[in-house]
Design brief:
Length: about 200
């Protein structure tokens, strides 16, 4: 009487091959490395883009300030010229041919300038171009180099750009229309030219 042998085929737990585990670890490392490199590339790209945008915006702002400099300087120059031109009519009420301060151009009854402008390059007062006590024009106190060399032809610094009232008997200056040349009229006070900030008293 033989009992049939029952053979139980117990399934063994699957043990991954060491080689397969190593490949998985390498695959995971490769994926993490690729993600890291991609993020670094994006960061560098964003940084370059931000620098380019900042530089472009800086150029735009500088051009705007230079355009405003030309506008304000010429407005002051023209206001001084009109002020001087009215001297013969108004000399009964004023003793000076030229303004002694920029505020004189804004006074009623006749306002030659709506407001005393600031220098748009520095945000400070314009430097005054004076002969004796007479204000002949303004210039920026900035020693930076202008970008627009077409409008400010021949100017090495903003300070060298003179917005000076044209004097009778002067010739036009093709290099810089704001600076007259060959002037025959002597200074009204007989004193040398001075330069100071608006609002400062000469020493």
């Amino acid at each position: 009487m033989g009992h049939g042998l029952q053979i139980f085929n117990r399934s063994r737990p699957h043990v991954p091959s060491p080689r397969i585990g190593e490949n998985c670890r390498l695959l995971g490392f490769t994926q993490h490395g690729a993600t890291y490199l991609m993020m670094m590339f994006i960061i560098v790209l964003l940084s370059i883009t931000l620098i380019a945008v900042t530089q472009h915006w800086s150029v735009v702002m500088k051009r705007d300030r230079e355009a405003e400099l030309a506008f304000r300087g010429n407005r002051i120059k023209e206001a001084i010229e009109r002020y001087v031109a009215d001297y013969e009519v108004q000399k009964a009420t004023r003793s000076n041919r030229y303004p002694l301060k920029l505020e004189d151009l804004t006074k009623r009854p006749k306002r030659y300038l709506q407001a005393v402008y600031k220098d748009p390059i520095t945000g400070e007062d314009f430097a005054l171009i004076k002969v004796g006590k007479d204000i002949r024009g303004v210039r920026s106190p900035s020693m930076d180099t202008p970008m627009d060399l077409v409008t400010f032809k021949g100017a090495s610094t903003y300070n060298s750009i003179r917005f000076e009232a044209s004097i009778a008997g002067c010739g036009s200056n093709p290099a810089n229309p704001a600076v007259p040349i060959n002037c025959r009229q002597p200074p009204s006070s007989g004193e040398p030219e001075e330069e100071e900030k608006d609002g400062e008293e000469p020493e």
